[in-house]
Structure prediction request, 510 residues.
Amino acid sequence: MKDILQTLEDRRDMARAGGGEHRVAAQHAKGKLTARERVELLLDEGSFEEFDMFVAHRCVDFGMQEERPYGDGVITGWGTINGRMVYVFSQDFTVLGGSVSETHAKKICKIMDMAMQNGAPVIGINDSGGARIQEGVDSLAGYGDVFQRNIMASGVVPQISVIMGPCAGGAVYSPAMTDFIFMVKDSSYMFVTGPDVVKTVTNEQVTAEELGGASTHTKKSSVADAAFENDVEALAEVRRLVDFLPSSNREKPPVRPFFDEPGRIEPSLDTLVPDNPNTPYDMKELITKLADEGDFYEIQEDFAKNMITGFIRLEGQTVGVVANQPMVLAGCLDIDSSRKAARFVRFCDCFEIPLLTLVDVPGFLPGVTQEYNGVIKHGAKLLFAYGEATVPKVTVITRKAYGGAYVVMASKHLRADFNYAWPTSEIAVMGAKGATEIIHRKDRDDPEKLAAHTKDYEDRFANPFVAAERGFVDEVIMPQSTRKRVSRAFASLRDKQSEMPWKKHDNIPL
Ligand code: HXC
Prediction:
């Protein structure tokens, strides 16, 4: 009996050894942790329950029958993050380069199916040379099966991808369909075709890092949501994010203990908006002053900085924040910021996370480049996303809310539940100067008259009261009491019921 038990332990040791000491050392030398070390760091201590430790591939081509390592290059199973269940797969680059075989893909599919059945997030740690070259189409079929599950799971359970090594070719499309992608600086990359192919086809010379590194994807392409210094930091941040999210679309986000008075008054907010309407201020200051304990988890911090997206908690409950940032491009809407915010709004809506929108928007960014690249369709994404969202929606206008952008930013017209405005708000078709130059064109050469017209327009529209008269703004509030008002608003909306008419699905302008 003892021998049999020992056999199990021996086999487990073989599986745990991965690709062997030499390859593990090579992995560490690149500043990367092993697949198992990553899982241990991601999950609560001792909570990991492994599946399929002894799975081996069935390939007999190219001498592969001689090399059948346990686990087949991916570690799968479930565990907990701060006590809540998650499913995880972690590709093991030390075993056949973490390449994806038929059986490797089956292991991933198994935990994805269980995650959907049991209502828990899937976290995928990617570190792989891609399709197992020796397996040909069997490997591609495996990828296809994972892709289909990514699609089925979208909106059912949160899916998070952590890129911690190579992720190239068609392999990028599995993370691309998940909700969040995190990368590690200098040790991860994603691209559809690598630098060599790019050089051959387009004659462009780039390094892997330039083409698909963490900086490229967080600052230029927006494929990734955040980049971290190393594996340890990335995994710690995934744990932090999971704490904000519900386990599935069948339940509400977790409620955490909070130590911050919901009615906390912030007198400093009364002077946040500068006297000069063209002087910027930092909208993040408002966000952190509203949040429980000032805790803000920002998504896509380095992309389209004129729009801020991320999670806070109010009274311990997760709230998604979308806010214009007057410090960058005056907080205007453009292609990138609209796309960024639209995707975030849709994530929140499918997982029942209420939305807080903070508005200071002078309009859409004018320009040939914007028009040629389809700002009409991209701007419409955000409009559409807000209009279809049925979660509780609370909006606070701090200063400018001009033109179409006023409507887009979770206005009353898009079924927002509470629309508050600070006394500093200006809700109008456009800024007073621009408006005057159009409606008083005949006086354009008379600066004195123009100034008088501008003053007149400002007096009439550069305030929240016309909108408040119409009921488009529910209440004009003191900036210092914003946390209290917003917290109470969300509390009143906890049992909100709102539905869209039946349809197979909508046709958001992609
Ligand atoms: C089988 C692979 C492999 C693969 C790496 N290995 N990629 N085995 N299939 N795709 C093995 C190597 O043979 C090696 O084995 C070990 O993994 C480590 O690889 P190295 O090359 O030594 O590591 P490194 O120098 O760090 O380079 C990593 C790499 C390189 C850049 C990823 O391995 C590489 O270019 N691999 C091939 C990538 C590729 O073309 N994949 C197919 C893409 S198409 P030993 O035994 O020596 O340790 C694709 C389509 C997906 O993925 C389609 C989805 C629909």
User: Anything to note?
Assistant: The mean pLDDT is 96. The two ends are 62 Å apart (CA to CA).
